[in-house]
Design brief:
By secondary structure, the protein is α/β, with parallel strands linked by helices. It contains 11 helices and 5 strands.
Length: 228
């Protein structure tokens, strides 16, 4: 099995590309969905965030108030760092576990929707291919304002807090230009999908995995039953 990452900037259209792969039956591991799951009321990350930021970050339903959360961390780098230390390791553990389960199911490859792939730069080297969904800054800002209840200043801050799109594109194997219509974006994603379907990388990886497993089992057998 091999891994394909879809990344990009906030509101550039990553979900559109992910949905194309999903409709073709390819497993999707969405880091944003995992991030929401791990902070549900009562879960370990939720408890740690409540201790870190206090009750004011909670809604009456006990869910996190994301608007207040954004205001609290704002430009406070120390608080942002502490919050990231709570959330990101938990996300990574869930991702690794789900990848392992798909490996056991015999999947050829899995698509990981990772908005902060390059910013965190922990999983980058494990990706066989990286797809960046990009669009012009003005279009990105327009989509962000339509999607979220933010002021123009807040939206600009969120865009500028991420790695420049040019750097992400340079580090990617494929770049999807999402300035046009949804149909154009989906067509370009399908082109990449067909290329992934032709790849034999999963067979090579499976051979290496089975070879390593055989070596470990034979070594254990030798030490347990031959030497003793």
């Amino acid at each position: 099995m091999f891994l394909v990452a879809i990344t990009g900037g906030i509101a550039t259209g990553k979900s559109t590309a992910s949905q194309v792969f999903e409709r073709q039956g390819i497993p999707i591991i969405d880091a944003r969905k995992i991030a929401k799951e791990i902070v549900e009321p009562g879960k370990p990350c939720w408890k740690k965030i409540r201790i870190l930021l206090g009750e004011e970050v909670l809604l009456p339903t006990q869910e996190l108030n994301r608007n207040v959360l954004g205001q609290l961390i704002g430009d406070n780098q120390d608080t942002r760092r502490k919050l990231n230390e709570i959330i990101y390791p938990a996300i990574q553990r869930v991702i690794v576990w789900r990848v392992f389960k798909y490996l056991l199911c015999g999947r050829a490859y899995v698509v990981l929707d990772l908005p902060l792939l390059f910013e965190m730069d922990i999983l980058t080297n494990y990706m066989h291919k990286i797809i960046t969904v990009s669009c012009d800054p003005d279009k990105q800002l327009e989509r962000l304002l339509e999607r979220n209840e933010l002021s123009v200043e807040e939206a600009k801050e969120r865009v500028e807090s991420q790695m420049p799109m040019e750097i992400k594109c340079e580090r990617s194997h494929f770049v999807i230009d999402n300035n046009g219509s949804i149909e154009e974006t989906e067509a370009e994603t399908m082109r990449i999908y067909h290329l992934m379907q032709k790849s034999k990388k999963h067979l090579y990886n499976r051979f290496i995995f089975l070879t390593a497993l055989l070596f470990v089992c034979s070594t254990m057998y030798f030490f347990l039953f031959v030497m003793f």
